[in-house]
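$ fold --in a.seq
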Amino acid sequence: MQLLQPSLLSYSRSIQTGKGLFYAIVNHEGKKIKTPVTVEQTSIRGTQSSHSAGQSFYDENPDKPNLQRIEVAHLPANSDTFECVFSLNVLGKSIKPDACNDEQFIEYVAQFLKIYTDKNGYAILAQKYVNQILNGSWLWRNRDADNLTITIKVMNRTNFLEEFNNECQFIVAQPYSEQQKKFLQMLIDQFAAALSGKSHLLRLEITASGKIGLGQEIFPSQEFVEKDKMKDDIGRVLAKTSLGTVDNHAYLHPQKIGNALRTIDTWYSNASFVPALPVEPYGVDSKMQKAMRVSKDSKNDFYSLVENIISLTEELKASKNVEEIPGNVHFVVGCLVRGGVFSYSSQESVEKRKKKEAEKASKKQIKKDNKKIGS
């Protein structure tokens, strides 16, 4: 039995990230001084390098300079180390939709999520999210640093690992000590409890620091600016915000950080090793410009899986332990954790789509039967 999706369906984000603010670290007389990394304008004189530019100038002037005004961010000349800090709130928003106009759908999904919670499925997601925090992938191009260190501080659990003063530091790609493992296990438990709604909220502060060299470039997020709205013909606009007396403090967009944290979808393929994708309804790989969960042979996208939530629930029930939970089950819950508007345009459009698919299948079968008769 397939479940028709409602024409009104939306979920709020369960993992909410703040801006990733960049700082330069200077050691002065044994003290660590932290100052904001600022965004500045610069002019550069480049050469024509794109294929289209070369073709258009081929018969005219291919060595014409490529003059640009762009925004950049660098550490000061006396600093070789950066910090990036962001806050993270974990909530149980996937447990029920923000808006839904189909009671039957709510009932089936609630049953599915209850079984998932009882089988401790959220612990798998929590572990994957925490791993993404620890590997520093959310720093994007800024990840290439020596002694990259990630510090996780729990902000709203006063009784959480008091021996650690509620925080713990990890060096990326280094083995964990027993104390670090203990901290991580308790953190994952708290993370899973917040996602599943067993606790109200988990609030974290994440800090990354690494050595990249004196005056080296920092890579904040880049703003999208329509060409006709560009000011002063600036070719590249970086993300910057006001903080105290600083008006151009460089930062990473919360969306960019969030995208990296949810890059945990390795369930879209049965291959032994596949690169993780961000959890998205169609499993879009932006580097390849391809929807990895959409193919002629199988329908593993979020919408197709949710239509079959009843059979997916049966698969979940059949799993003997958390390790046996099917990957597509984790993917569906991951999409609900991600949040978004998942509405069909109308119930009528759903019926039309299903009717069209049935007609297509019928025609295909008739074609096969005719081939058999002809042979």
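$ fold --in b.seq
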Amino acid sequence: MSRFAKLETQSGVTPDNTPSDTPLMPDAASYGQEPLTYDAVMRKADASFYSGDFRRALQYYSQALQEDASRPDPWIAQVLALIFLGEMREADVWSARGAERFPTHPGVLSFRGLTLTLQGMTSRGIGTSDFALSQGAPDAICWFARGWILLEADNANWKMCFDKAQGAIAPQEWRLTAQMGLALERYRKWVPAIEAYGKCATANPDNPFLWHHLGICQRQMGFINQAIESQRHALTLKPSWGAAEKELIRLTSRPLEGLITKGVQWIKGLVVKR
């Protein structure tokens, strides 16, 4: 069995692309333990997602669907985890299934539109997003998905959509802002990504994953001292973390890289202004 075929089976998609009801991971009852509630599973899923363990988060979101498939949140979250894992075939299957179950839910439809766009079907994706936005007052998740769609389409209006998403959540709510940071980082939008991760790190200063990604974006902009500080803070929170250690070694052993990067960014800024 190929790696991808095995992954399909584990994620509840049969080899013929027909979604099944098999969970990604055995439930607690399989081990003679007290089954977790839906809310408890979702907390574990979110904790895994926002520590960067998208694979484990995906497993828990699938388990949450086993507990209660009538709620849209795990459907949306499962698709998001699959996107960050790069499993677009499965993201397509699960976003389509979610849209069938929730044909008028703005968030589910928004992520269906995003999944279509990320597979190169931009017109269909935007059309699906348009329909989602027409289903009542759009919430933050709808504007985030719309902004990501426009990022993929290289449309400058992505920023307006992200601003609307940010304005629709409470100042202390950092999770959606973290998702925006991850999306922005994918498209090398370093400055807005730094802003997003900075907000998250302020609201949730004990999360090493956020500090690590903040440091990566700071390095890309040539802010070497700040990047070193961010990676060191990540290691304080999560000692011996390989990813942060590797990044810190890169920062401290190649100091000229930061100056070169900063110079390149400055030159690009001049070109844009002209």
